[in-house]
Amino acid sequence: MPISVLLVDDEPLVRAGLRAVLEAQPDIEVVGEAADGAAVVPLVRSLRPDVVAMDVRMPLLDGIEATRAVLRTVDDPPKILVVTTFENDEYVYDALRAGADGFLLKRARPAEIVHAVRLVAEGESLLFPAAVRSLAAEYGSAPARAAMERAALTEREAAVLRLMARGMSNAEIAAELVVGAETVKSHVSAVLAKLGARDRTQAVIAAYESGFVSPG
Fold first, then answer.
1. Model pTM above 0.85
2. Do the beta carbons of residue 59 and residue 10 sit within 8 Å?
3. Greatest CA separation found in the chain?
4. What burial class does residue 86 get, using C-beta atoms within 10 Å of its C-beta: 0-12 exposed, 13-18 middle, 19+ buried?
């Protein structure tokens, strides 16, 4: 089955460009478009896309609030890929904290756009580059540090979280630690459960905000 994508951006040219790039791929299908975040929830419910590629800044409902709305009201929600102009935009980080799974620059090359959609659809790697890591570290707080301490990760779980924070997939972590992929999958699940994280992105945000890992 192809990866189904919903495009959400108030600029028609951006939507047209993304559609052209994505529909050139045999394993990706654009199933719908919207010009504002206010239309996202009903479209997600009717179209059931695997991925929503969504602008972070829109006139009526921005990508942050639209992300919250999807995750709050839709059963088995899609992956959300935030599309933005500036990689160090705090709006991007707020969208990731709200539950988005990664972000994509509007100036990205076609191959990078396709890779981003496939990556978030698979759910086993992160789009979490250096600029966003720095923003995460700036949000460090005592509650975040206390939550990390309460999680009481084992030595191996801690190692897995550090590698997750570097954007590694399960297969890459398995190779790094010389263990099986299923073992890594179990460790990732344990890390998410202990941190109360919905997904890898939320776990990595917790790691940076607590100081468990640093941007460098």
1. no
2. yes
3. 49
4. middle
Count CB atoms within 10 A of the CB of residue 47.
14
pLDDT of 138 reads 73
List, in sequence order, every residue forming a beta bridge with 102; answer none if it has no partner. Answer: 81, 127
Q: What is the pLDDT of residues 25-64, one digit of tens each?
A: 999 999 999 999 999 999 999 999 999 999 988 888 989 9
Structure tokens at 202: 């939320």
Q: What's residue 132's pLDDT?
A: 67
**Nearest residue to 199 via CA among 126, 95, 110:** 126
Query: What element of type H or E holds 146?
Result: helix 142-151
In sequence order, the 6+-apart residues with CB closer than 8 A to the CB of 117 are 3, 5, 22, 28, 51, 53, 81
Distances, alpha carbon 8 to alpha carbons 90, 115, 116, 182, 205, in Å: 19, 18, 16, 35, 25
How many percent of the chain have pLDDT more than 90? 59
Helix (H) or strand (E) holding 120: helix 110-122
> Which H, E and C letters describe 49-102, residue by residue?
CCEEEEECCCCCCCHHHHHHHHHHHCCCCCEEEEEECCCCCHHHHHHHHHCCCE
Residue with token string 């959609």: 117
